[in-house]
Amino acid sequence: MGYACTVLADSVSPAGARITTFEVTFPRLVLAEFNTHRVFSRNSASSRAIPVATQLRRVLEAPYVPAEFGTNQPGMQAGPNLAGERHERARQEWLAARDAAVGHVIGLIAEPGTAPAGASTAELLELVEQLRARIAAKDIPDAWLNVHKQLANRLLEPFMWHTLIVTSTEWENFFHLRAHPDAQPEIQEIAERMRAAYEASTPREVAEGAWHLPLVGEYGGDPAADAALSGDELLKVAVGRCARVSYLTHGGTRDPSADITLHDRLLESAHLSPFEHPARPMTEAELAESAWSGNFRGWHPYRKDIPHEWDALGAEPLVTSG
Protein backbone atom coordinates (compact mmCIF):
# COMPACT_ATOMS: atom_id res chain seq x y z
CA MET A 1 0.00 0.00 0.00
CA GLY A 2 0.94 3.66 -0.26
CA TYR A 3 -0.53 7.04 -1.09
CA ALA A 4 -3.40 6.67 -3.57
CA CYS A 5 -6.26 8.81 -4.81
CA THR A 6 -9.10 7.82 -7.16
CA VAL A 7 -12.22 9.77 -8.14
CA LEU A 8 -15.12 7.34 -7.61
CA ALA A 9 -17.80 9.68 -8.96
CA ASP A 10 -17.91 13.32 -10.01
CA SER A 11 -21.23 15.00 -10.82
CA VAL A 12 -22.70 18.42 -11.50
CA SER A 13 -26.36 19.37 -11.02
CA PRO A 14 -28.56 21.41 -13.38
CA ALA A 15 -28.00 24.35 -11.00
CA GLY A 16 -24.22 24.01 -11.35
CA ALA A 17 -23.44 22.45 -7.95
CA ARG A 18 -20.61 19.91 -8.05
CA ILE A 19 -20.28 16.82 -5.83
CA THR A 20 -17.24 14.55 -5.84
CA THR A 21 -16.46 11.21 -4.21
CA PHE A 22 -12.88 10.05 -3.71
CA GLU A 23 -11.26 6.88 -2.49
CA VAL A 24 -7.99 7.83 -0.81
CA THR A 25 -5.21 5.99 1.00
CA PHE A 26 -2.84 7.79 3.36
CA PRO A 27 -1.04 7.19 6.68
CA ARG A 28 -3.47 6.32 9.49
CA LEU A 29 -1.71 8.73 11.84
CA VAL A 30 -3.27 11.82 10.16
CA LEU A 31 -6.84 10.47 10.02
CA ALA A 32 -7.87 12.72 12.93
CA GLU A 33 -6.77 15.78 10.94
CA PHE A 34 -8.80 14.61 7.93
CA ASN A 35 -11.83 14.07 10.15
CA THR A 36 -11.90 17.66 11.40
CA HIS A 37 -13.50 18.68 8.08
CA ARG A 38 -17.15 18.37 9.05
CA VAL A 39 -18.68 18.95 5.61
CA PHE A 40 -17.26 15.59 4.48
CA SER A 41 -19.23 12.34 4.40
CA ARG A 42 -16.82 9.49 5.11
CA ASN A 43 -16.50 5.75 5.40
CA SER A 44 -13.21 4.29 6.53
CA ALA A 45 -11.38 1.01 6.65
CA SER A 46 -11.97 -0.30 10.14
CA SER A 47 -9.46 -1.65 12.62
CA ARG A 48 -12.39 -3.54 14.18
CA ALA A 49 -13.33 -5.31 10.93
CA ILE A 50 -10.09 -6.25 9.17
CA PRO A 51 -8.67 -9.60 10.35
CA VAL A 52 -5.71 -9.13 12.65
CA ALA A 53 -3.46 -11.48 10.68
CA THR A 54 -4.16 -9.38 7.55
CA GLN A 55 -3.11 -6.22 9.36
CA LEU A 56 -0.05 -7.91 10.81
CA ARG A 57 1.05 -9.01 7.36
CA ARG A 58 0.56 -5.49 5.98
CA VAL A 59 2.55 -3.71 8.65
CA LEU A 60 5.33 -6.28 8.37
CA GLU A 61 5.57 -6.17 4.58
CA ALA A 62 4.47 -2.60 3.75
CA PRO A 63 4.36 -0.40 6.86
CA TYR A 64 3.97 3.32 6.83
CA VAL A 65 7.41 4.84 7.51
CA PRO A 66 7.79 8.64 7.44
CA ALA A 67 9.79 9.90 4.49
CA GLU A 68 10.97 12.82 6.63
CA PHE A 69 11.86 13.13 10.30
CA GLY A 70 11.68 16.84 11.12
CA THR A 71 13.58 18.09 14.15
CA ASN A 72 11.87 19.36 17.26
CA GLN A 73 11.17 23.08 17.69
CA PRO A 74 8.40 25.23 19.21
CA GLY A 75 5.16 25.44 17.25
CA MET A 76 3.21 23.05 15.01
CA GLN A 77 5.75 22.83 12.18
CA ALA A 78 8.87 20.69 12.49
CA GLY A 79 12.36 22.06 12.05
CA PRO A 80 14.91 20.95 9.43
CA ASN A 81 14.74 17.27 8.52
CA LEU A 82 17.27 14.78 9.77
CA ALA A 83 19.70 13.66 7.10
CA GLY A 84 22.27 10.95 6.52
CA GLU A 85 23.05 8.69 9.47
CA ARG A 86 20.65 10.52 11.81
CA HIS A 87 17.76 10.02 9.35
CA GLU A 88 18.61 6.31 9.11
CA ARG A 89 18.75 5.99 12.91
CA ALA A 90 15.29 7.58 13.19
CA ARG A 91 13.97 5.24 10.51
CA GLN A 92 15.34 2.20 12.35
CA GLU A 93 13.78 3.40 15.63
CA TRP A 94 10.41 3.68 13.86
CA LEU A 95 10.71 0.15 12.47
CA ALA A 96 11.81 -1.19 15.85
CA ALA A 97 8.64 0.31 17.35
CA ARG A 98 6.67 -1.41 14.57
CA ASP A 99 8.32 -4.77 15.38
CA ALA A 100 7.59 -4.36 19.07
CA ALA A 101 3.93 -3.50 18.37
CA VAL A 102 3.54 -6.54 16.13
CA GLY A 103 5.13 -8.73 18.81
CA HIS A 104 2.70 -7.48 21.43
CA VAL A 105 -0.27 -8.02 19.10
CA ILE A 106 0.74 -11.62 18.49
CA GLY A 107 1.00 -12.00 22.26
CA LEU A 108 -2.62 -10.85 22.57
CA ILE A 109 -4.53 -12.56 19.81
CA ALA A 110 -4.81 -16.34 20.06
CA GLU A 111 -4.81 -19.30 22.37
CA PRO A 112 -2.42 -22.20 21.68
CA GLY A 113 -3.55 -24.25 18.70
CA THR A 114 -6.06 -21.67 17.48
CA ALA A 115 -6.01 -18.72 15.13
CA PRO A 116 -8.17 -15.59 14.79
CA ALA A 117 -10.90 -15.44 12.17
CA GLY A 118 -9.54 -15.20 8.66
CA ALA A 119 -6.08 -16.53 9.46
CA SER A 120 -4.62 -20.01 9.44
CA THR A 121 -2.52 -21.29 12.31
CA ALA A 122 0.31 -21.81 9.84
CA GLU A 123 0.18 -18.15 8.82
CA LEU A 124 0.37 -17.00 12.42
CA LEU A 125 3.22 -19.36 13.20
CA GLU A 126 5.10 -17.99 10.20
CA LEU A 127 4.61 -14.45 11.52
CA VAL A 128 5.85 -15.50 14.94
CA GLU A 129 9.00 -17.00 13.47
CA GLN A 130 9.64 -13.82 11.48
CA LEU A 131 9.45 -11.85 14.68
CA ARG A 132 11.64 -14.19 16.68
CA ALA A 133 14.39 -13.68 14.12
CA ARG A 134 13.74 -9.93 13.95
CA ILE A 135 13.52 -9.15 17.66
CA ALA A 136 16.02 -11.31 19.44
CA ALA A 137 15.59 -9.43 22.71
CA LYS A 138 11.82 -9.80 22.72
CA ASP A 139 10.44 -12.89 24.44
CA ILE A 140 7.28 -13.70 22.47
CA PRO A 141 5.06 -15.85 24.68
CA ASP A 142 3.90 -19.28 23.64
CA ALA A 143 0.65 -18.93 25.60
CA TRP A 144 -1.66 -16.53 23.76
CA LEU A 145 -4.74 -14.72 25.03
CA ASN A 146 -7.41 -14.53 22.26
CA VAL A 147 -7.96 -10.77 22.53
CA HIS A 148 -10.31 -9.41 19.82
CA LYS A 149 -8.96 -7.46 16.85
CA GLN A 150 -10.92 -4.34 17.88
CA LEU A 151 -8.23 -3.85 20.53
CA ALA A 152 -5.27 -5.81 19.18
CA ASN A 153 -5.23 -3.97 15.84
CA ARG A 154 -5.08 -0.58 17.60
CA LEU A 155 -1.45 -1.16 18.53
CA LEU A 156 -0.61 -1.26 14.81
CA GLU A 157 -2.29 2.00 13.78
CA PRO A 158 0.79 4.29 13.71
CA PHE A 159 2.30 1.94 11.12
CA MET A 160 -0.82 1.43 9.01
CA TRP A 161 -1.98 2.86 5.70
CA HIS A 162 -5.63 3.89 5.83
CA THR A 163 -8.25 3.77 3.07
CA LEU A 164 -11.28 6.05 3.12
CA ILE A 165 -14.20 6.98 0.86
CA VAL A 166 -15.17 10.64 1.16
CA THR A 167 -17.91 12.67 -0.55
CA SER A 168 -18.41 16.44 -0.44
CA THR A 169 -19.59 19.48 -2.33
CA GLU A 170 -17.08 21.67 -0.47
CA TRP A 171 -13.39 21.14 -1.20
CA GLU A 172 -11.71 24.54 -1.41
CA ASN A 173 -11.17 25.02 2.33
CA PHE A 174 -9.68 21.54 2.65
CA PHE A 175 -7.30 22.18 -0.24
CA HIS A 176 -6.39 25.60 1.17
CA LEU A 177 -5.54 24.25 4.63
CA ARG A 178 -4.10 20.82 3.86
CA ALA A 179 -2.41 21.19 0.45
CA HIS A 180 -0.21 23.80 2.10
CA PRO A 181 3.44 23.87 3.21
CA ASP A 182 2.39 24.43 6.85
CA ALA A 183 0.31 21.22 6.94
CA GLN A 184 1.78 17.99 8.29
CA PRO A 185 3.58 16.35 5.33
CA GLU A 186 1.43 13.20 5.40
CA ILE A 187 -1.87 15.04 4.96
CA GLN A 188 -0.29 17.58 2.61
CA GLU A 189 0.70 14.75 0.28
CA ILE A 190 -2.78 13.27 -0.02
CA ALA A 191 -4.46 16.70 -0.22
CA GLU A 192 -2.22 17.69 -3.14
CA ARG A 193 -3.07 14.44 -4.93
CA MET A 194 -6.78 15.01 -4.33
CA ARG A 195 -6.62 18.59 -5.60
CA ALA A 196 -4.82 17.48 -8.76
CA ALA A 197 -7.40 14.72 -9.36
CA TYR A 198 -10.28 17.15 -8.70
CA GLU A 199 -8.92 19.70 -11.16
CA ALA A 200 -8.29 17.03 -13.80
CA SER A 201 -11.75 15.46 -13.49
CA THR A 202 -14.72 16.54 -15.61
CA PRO A 203 -17.97 16.12 -13.66
CA ARG A 204 -20.82 14.25 -15.30
CA GLU A 205 -24.09 16.16 -15.74
CA VAL A 206 -26.81 14.63 -13.58
CA ALA A 207 -30.41 15.58 -14.31
CA GLU A 208 -33.01 16.34 -11.66
CA GLY A 209 -34.31 13.03 -10.31
CA ALA A 210 -31.12 11.12 -11.22
CA TRP A 211 -28.34 10.19 -8.78
CA HIS A 212 -24.65 10.61 -8.06
CA LEU A 213 -23.67 6.94 -7.52
CA PRO A 214 -20.10 6.07 -6.49
CA LEU A 215 -18.79 2.62 -7.43
CA VAL A 216 -21.64 1.98 -9.87
CA GLY A 217 -21.35 1.47 -13.63
CA GLU A 218 -18.53 3.47 -15.19
CA TYR A 219 -17.41 4.66 -11.75
CA GLY A 220 -15.68 1.52 -10.59
CA GLY A 221 -18.59 -0.86 -10.94
CA ASP A 222 -19.40 -3.58 -13.47
CA PRO A 223 -21.09 -1.59 -16.27
CA ALA A 224 -22.71 -4.61 -17.91
CA ALA A 225 -24.09 -6.12 -14.70
CA ASP A 226 -25.09 -2.76 -13.24
CA ALA A 227 -26.99 -1.82 -16.43
CA ALA A 228 -29.43 -4.65 -15.72
CA LEU A 229 -30.41 -3.22 -12.32
CA SER A 230 -33.28 -0.87 -11.56
CA GLY A 231 -32.71 2.63 -10.23
CA ASP A 232 -33.62 1.59 -6.69
CA GLU A 233 -31.27 -1.38 -6.90
CA LEU A 234 -28.40 0.79 -8.13
CA LEU A 235 -28.93 3.12 -5.19
CA LYS A 236 -28.68 0.19 -2.78
CA VAL A 237 -25.64 -1.22 -4.58
CA ALA A 238 -23.82 2.13 -4.24
CA VAL A 239 -24.49 2.15 -0.50
CA GLY A 240 -23.27 -1.43 -0.08
CA ARG A 241 -20.08 -0.80 -2.04
CA CYS A 242 -19.27 2.39 -0.14
CA ALA A 243 -19.78 0.52 3.12
CA ARG A 244 -17.38 -2.24 2.09
CA VAL A 245 -14.37 0.05 2.45
CA SER A 246 -14.53 -0.94 6.12
CA TYR A 247 -13.37 -4.40 5.05
CA LEU A 248 -11.15 -3.35 2.13
CA THR A 249 -12.95 -5.81 -0.12
CA HIS A 250 -14.40 -3.79 -2.98
CA GLY A 251 -11.35 -4.38 -5.16
CA GLY A 252 -12.64 -7.94 -5.56
CA THR A 253 -15.53 -9.53 -7.43
CA ARG A 254 -18.69 -7.43 -7.69
CA ASP A 255 -21.87 -9.05 -6.37
CA PRO A 256 -24.89 -6.73 -6.63
CA SER A 257 -27.12 -9.08 -4.63
CA ALA A 258 -24.61 -9.08 -1.75
CA ASP A 259 -24.39 -5.28 -1.92
CA ILE A 260 -28.18 -4.99 -1.74
CA THR A 261 -28.27 -7.37 1.22
CA LEU A 262 -25.63 -5.29 2.98
CA HIS A 263 -27.66 -2.11 2.31
CA ASP A 264 -30.72 -3.70 3.89
CA ARG A 265 -28.77 -4.92 6.91
CA LEU A 266 -27.22 -1.48 7.47
CA LEU A 267 -30.64 0.16 7.16
CA GLU A 268 -32.18 -2.20 9.70
CA SER A 269 -29.35 -1.63 12.20
CA ALA A 270 -29.33 2.17 11.56
CA HIS A 271 -25.68 2.25 10.47
CA LEU A 272 -26.37 5.04 8.01
CA SER A 273 -23.10 6.79 7.15
CA PRO A 274 -22.74 4.87 3.82
CA PHE A 275 -26.17 6.26 2.82
CA GLU A 276 -24.64 9.75 2.57
CA HIS A 277 -22.52 9.11 -0.55
CA PRO A 278 -25.36 8.68 -3.10
CA ALA A 279 -27.08 12.00 -3.67
CA ARG A 280 -29.49 13.66 -6.11
CA PRO A 281 -29.63 17.27 -7.31
CA MET A 282 -31.90 19.41 -5.16
CA THR A 283 -35.03 20.64 -6.92
CA GLU A 284 -35.76 24.31 -7.54
CA ALA A 285 -38.37 24.20 -4.76
CA GLU A 286 -35.86 22.69 -2.32
CA LEU A 287 -33.20 25.23 -3.26
CA ALA A 288 -35.69 28.05 -2.68
CA GLU A 289 -35.96 26.94 0.94
CA SER A 290 -32.27 26.24 1.56
CA ALA A 291 -29.14 25.64 -0.50
CA TRP A 292 -28.12 22.87 1.91
CA SER A 293 -29.33 19.34 2.57
CA GLY A 294 -27.36 17.75 5.40
CA ASN A 295 -23.72 18.66 4.79
CA PHE A 296 -24.12 18.98 0.99
CA ARG A 297 -24.84 22.18 -0.90
CA GLY A 298 -27.14 21.78 -3.89
CA TRP A 299 -27.37 18.01 -3.44
CA HIS A 300 -29.71 15.88 -1.33
CA PRO A 301 -28.08 12.77 0.21
CA TYR A 302 -29.99 9.49 0.17
CA ARG A 303 -29.67 9.35 3.96
CA LYS A 304 -32.05 12.30 4.26
CA ASP A 305 -34.81 10.22 2.64
CA ILE A 306 -34.74 7.75 5.56
CA PRO A 307 -37.34 8.54 8.25
CA HIS A 308 -35.82 9.52 11.60
CA GLU A 309 -32.28 9.08 10.24
CA TRP A 310 -30.99 11.53 12.85
CA ASP A 311 -32.40 9.62 15.87
CA ALA A 312 -32.91 5.93 15.23
CA LEU A 313 -33.15 5.12 18.96
CA GLY A 314 -36.07 7.45 19.48
CA ALA A 315 -37.93 6.51 16.33
CA GLU A 316 -39.98 3.72 14.88
CA PRO A 317 -37.95 0.88 13.30
CA LEU A 318 -36.38 1.92 9.98
CA VAL A 319 -37.38 -1.43 8.44
CA THR A 320 -40.68 -3.13 9.14
CA SER A 321 -41.48 -6.75 8.48
CA GLY A 322 -44.38 -7.96 6.37
UniProtKB/TrEMBL annotation:
<keyword id="KW-0489">Methyltransferase</keyword>
<dbReference type="InterPro" id="IPR003669">
    <property type="entry name" value="Thymidylate_synthase_ThyX"/>
</dbReference>
<dbReference type="InterPro" id="IPR036098">
    <property type="entry name" value="Thymidylate_synthase_ThyX_sf"/>
</dbReference>
<dbReference type="Pfam" id="PF02511">
    <property type="entry name" value="Thy1"/>
</dbReference>
<keyword id="KW-0285">Flavoprotein</keyword>
<protein>
    <submittedName>
        <fullName>FAD-dependent thymidylate synthase</fullName>
    </submittedName>
</protein>
<keyword id="KW-0808">Transferase</keyword>
<keyword id="KW-0274">FAD</keyword>
<keyword id="KW-0545">Nucleotide biosynthesis</keyword>
